[in-house]
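for the recovery benchmark. tokens below, seq after
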């Protein structure tokens, strides 16, 4: 086994940092200045009225990830870094986050966001298994991938949240 293949040659892992309220960016900046690799998942949100650019929306408000080697990196300066509240621990020990999870988050954020193809009041048909082509009314988008619909069940109207992908637009009756 070569040195590059040994588990100790790259023992840096991702850990979770809790930041002070609304200071994720500040914590990330100051940790970068200390030469720590950080990852703060943000989603580009809608442009707010009066804002110059698209708003960034924290995927995990109050948290960011830091890549460290538990044995060779010095953890002590992290606790006094501006914007950092604490290192998230269980039983007093920081628990590593799997690299695969970080990669999945990155891929998800890079994927193009789906725009909901329905307008409030549109008649839709549910194509999800178990609904047997039930018809409903689209009320609103609940994020990029979910829709709130109004469903008539047993003579009562119920609001239901479903994946947008399980809906199709009903053709207008002539």
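predicted aa per position
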């Amino acid at each position: 086994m070569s040195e590059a293949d040994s588990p100790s040659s790259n023992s840096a892992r991702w850990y979770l940092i809790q930041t002070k309220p609304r200071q994720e960016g500040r914590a990330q900046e100051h940790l970068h200045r200390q030469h720590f690799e950080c990852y703060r998942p943000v989603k580009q949100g809608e442009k707010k009225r009066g804002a110059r650019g698209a708003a960034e929306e924290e995927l995990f408000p109050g948290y960011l990830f830091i890549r460290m080697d538990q044995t060779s990196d010095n953890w002590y300066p992290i606790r006094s870094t501006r914007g950092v509240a604490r290192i998230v621990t269980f039983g007093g020990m920081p628990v590593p986050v799997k690299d695969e999870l970080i990669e999945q988050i990155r891929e998800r954020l890079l994927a193009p966001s789906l725009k909901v193809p329905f307008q409030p009041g549109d008649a839709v048909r549910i194509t999800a298994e178990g609904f047997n082509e039930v018809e409903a009314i689209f009320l609103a988008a609940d994020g990029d991938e979910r829709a709130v619909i109004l469903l008539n069940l047993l003579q009562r109207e119920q609001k239901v949240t479903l994946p947008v992908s399980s809906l199709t637009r009903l053709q207008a009756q002539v």
